[in-house]
Amino acid sequence: MATIIDLKPQPFSFVGPIVGAFGALAGLLVGTAQGSGLLGLVLGAILMAGMAFALMHLKLPRRSVRLGLVVIFAIIGLMVGGTIGGIISALAGWLFGNLTFWLADGRYRANLAPYLTPGQVLWHFTFRVICGVIFGFLITPIIVVMPLSFNAEDFFTFTPEMLALKPEGYSLKHYQDFFTNSDWQSALWNSLTIAPVATLLSVSFGTLAAIGLSQPHVPGRRAIMAILISPMIVPLIISAAGMYFFYSRIGLQGTYLGVVLAHAALGIPFVIITVTATLVGFDNSLTRAAANMGADPVTTFFRVQMPLILPGVISGGLFAFITSFDEVVVVLFVGSAGQKTLPWQMFIGLREQISPTILAVATLLVGISIALLATLEVLRRRSERLRGMSPG
Amino acid sequence: MSDATETGRVLSADGTPLKKSLNRALRVQKMRALALIAPLLIFVLVTFIAPIADMLFRSVENQIVSDTLPRTVAALKDWDPESGEVPDEQVFDALYKDMFVAQEQKIHTRVGSRLNYENVGMSSLFRKSGRAVEKMGDLYVDQFEDLNDAWGEETTWVALMASPAYAQAATGWLAEQDAAKKAGQAFTKAPPAFEPAPGIGDLLPQTAEAFGQFADFMRTEEEETALDDEPWTLVYTALYNDLTAASEAGIAAYSGPQADLLKEAKAAVATFESASRKAQFLEADEDWGDVGVWQTIRVYAPRYTPGYFLNAVDKQLGPDGITDQPENQQIYIMLFKRTLFMSMVITVSCILLGYPVAWLLANLRMRTANLLMILVLLPFWTSLLVRTSAWKVMLQQQGVINDVLVWLGLVDDANRLIMINNQFGTIVAMTHILLPFMILPLYSVMQTINPSYLRAAKSLGATNWTAFWRVYFPQSVPGIGAGSILVFILAIGYYITPEIVGGTTGTFISNRIAYHISSSLNWGLAAALGAILLAAVLILYWAYDRIVGIDNVKLGG
């Protein structure tokens, strides 16, 4: 619905105040950092408005103007705030250059309906800025962890060396600690032995049950579904408390089996939900056709049904895996020191001794979640394609 | 067709009525579906539902008092708690017997800590009395042994109290054990079960009971026979009681083993020095003279108690019925309120932050929306511990946010903002963690809203605000409802994040539950708090099922 309209160049009376306002904002920030906010505000507004005026009236080649601005800003930034200041103000230079031309050409209206009033256009962009801030809120904490994990010091904060981008401020020692420290290694090993077994249990039971649940006539379907989904709904602390009491009665508390069973129970709802969702689009005439051609139920399941619902099964399995791999409350109570998993070790680290190794682990885990996310996306597309192909 | 007209019923190929045959097919189908579901259902019932049921059971269970102090509980039934007087000698005697057996089994401290939750100080009272109670009977042991050395012999006691069959079996068992020991073999045969001598229960009822308990204790706990050790001092005390109470004629008529010894003792007991059990207990700990202690035991004697639930709502069950806890111990109502309040704040923040983002995602081109969706899904998929540690890094006083603010000059280096270990920290971190759970349902609802409604409203003269508020917003309410309930359910049960960034003012009821399980070991109270929380969640779950339907839960778009 992108409308193509004539883009009218805008006069300075429109561009100047906006660029000036942004300049004032930037000036205010720089000014407070340097000691006088008010002076920065005024200077920023005047300088940026003046720059916009110059850019609009001197018909210089745009590429070199943009590049020049970046360089000039970077040099000023370097002198005022060191390396990091240089980088930030180079970005500011790029931003102001583009902003001025974008406004002056009238390109900001390119993708908007032509009948919008200026107020609506303003709201449109304000809204985007608000959303941008919220996206920033979502992603910043995860981004911030990554550089900090390369900290050469044992701190949770950026050191001056790191801010100056000096190589001696960075090191891989926290990663080295993670890969050599026996506590972390045994925790990793425990996580890697518990999660796959728990996943296998919940996927095999869960897939069978999901197939059963998607049959047209199931007595008490609602009640069964409520019971099977309940591990996801009941707060973890309550599940953990109940399992702790019950498993210590039957001697499973503090055993590997106990933790695996608990994690399998927690992963089941995810398998049920994803597999039943895949089965909603499943065409039952395919299994009937297979039976008609002489396949027994087992062959039908593995040769016809399984390949079609496999994406759902795998993504359910991934959910179950990450649930177990990421779970800390239940293992904290059901497990004993012998089943200390990675999240448990992180939890101890956060609560007791502050060690930046946690951040190294966190960065590695973010890497794993990115890989998982990508896998899921591929699976989702494949599932849609497969279902698009199946008749009905 | 001719069949149908002749019989009036439609028949299937094999001649059975079609209706019947269809019903059978349906039944087979149902059974097959149930057979597929059954393994998982059993698995979940055993590994998940049973633990929850066990927790609910523990929240009212109170068998420890009546199991450990059965005689005392029975004796206290006749005591009038309103009288303001300490119970009489009979109750103390019952307490002596219960305490003696309990301290031999080393379980008297457990009932002490159970009662300590209701009346502070009872834990140490029981521990102290446990030590004292062992020596209370020494007086009688000495006197009986002074009278006749035979009373110090295990064989005398077994001959008197046990059936001849038991005495024989025990002797045989000991011989076998010795033989095995000499041969250097492992000996695993269980000791014989105790049988009382015929008629001894009528003659010396208390002694028979005490000795029976002693023999059972030796067999189950020590894996030995009554021949291996001198009886408990409790048995001597009981014998003294029985002999003083028994009639002269009754003892004289006794003709079983050790009759002479018994007659001699009966003649002598009248001159025995005796001690009041009440005095002995009061000497051990003067708290036994406190009526409150006895009232507590009496109130918590039943096998099931609402006491834990009352504690969970800052009440207590005392002798005068249900009363408020002392002012300084009322924390649970406050914690529940705080949990609800903070969950509500988190839910509202999630709506405020999630709504614009969901709107943007639903109204952008598919390609861009999918790209931006990554920014929502990445936190969703990232480990909870990673996100919590990230917030610790961001919010602490030497953290990233404070550093940036100081660098910008907005905050003075000396007064860095305190944003962690308080409610603010918990709210910010949890809003971030739960925001994807709000955005995803909102997004899926908003995708179904036709944008032409909004344009139609505007073309009919509605202002931007009216068009949004009267046309778009009502259609997005189901999404808000679904997201809010989801976020709220998840928030009120959160444990990890409040524990790490909550400090003392930002913790939830779940932190208190964890504390009672792992630190204070008051499992009953933890179970009661958990049961209340569970009830709240189940009500919300039911509402969620009504609004969205559990079948429609979607994960990650």
Textual characterization of the structure:
The complex is a heterodimer of chains A (392) and B (557). Chain A has 392 residues and is mainly α. Chain A folds into four domains: 12-115, no CATH class; 116-141; 149-178, no CATH class; 181-389, MetI-like fold (Orthogonal Bundle). Chain A contains 15 helices and no strands. Chain A has helices spanning 12-34, 37-57, 62-104, 118-148, 160-163, 173-180, 182-213, 221-233, 236-249, 256-280, 284-292, 297-326, 329-334, 342-351, 357-389. The two termini of chain A are 31 Å apart. The model of chain A has no long low-confidence stretch (mean pLDDT 86). Chain B is mostly helical. Chain B has four domains: 2-58, no CATH class; 65-134 and 277-328, no CATH class; 138-269, no CATH class; 332-552, MetI-like (MetI-like fold, Orthogonal Bundle). In chain B, 68% of the residues lie in helices and 1% in strands. Classes of the chains: A mainly alpha (392), B mainly alpha (557). At the A-B interface, helix 1, helix 4, helix 7, helix 8 and helix 9 of A face helix 2, helix 19, helix 20, helix 21 and helix 22 of B.
Topology:
The complex is a heterodimer of chains A (392) and B (557).
Chain A: H1 12-34, H2 37-57, H3 62-104, H4 118-148, H5 160-163, H6 173-180, H7 182-213, H8 221-233, H9 236-249, H10 256-280, H11 284-292, H12 297-326, H13 329-334, H14 342-351, H15 357-389
Chain B: H1 2-7, H2 18-58, H3 63-68, H4 70-76, H5 89-104, H6 108-116, H7 122-133, H8 138-147, H9 154-161, H10 164-183, H11 200-203, H12 205-220, H13 233-245, H14 248-253, H15 259-269, H16 277-284, H17 291-299, H18 307-312, E1 315-318, E2 321-324, H19 332-363, H20 366-381, H21 384-395, H22 400-408, H23 423-446, H24 451-459, H25 464-492, H26 496-501, H27 509-518, H28 523-547
Antiparallel strand pairs in B: 1-2
Helix pairs in contact in B: 2-28, 4-5, 5-7, 6-7, 8-13, 12-13, 19-20, 19-23, 19-25, 20-23, 21-23, 23-25, 24-25, 25-28, 27-28
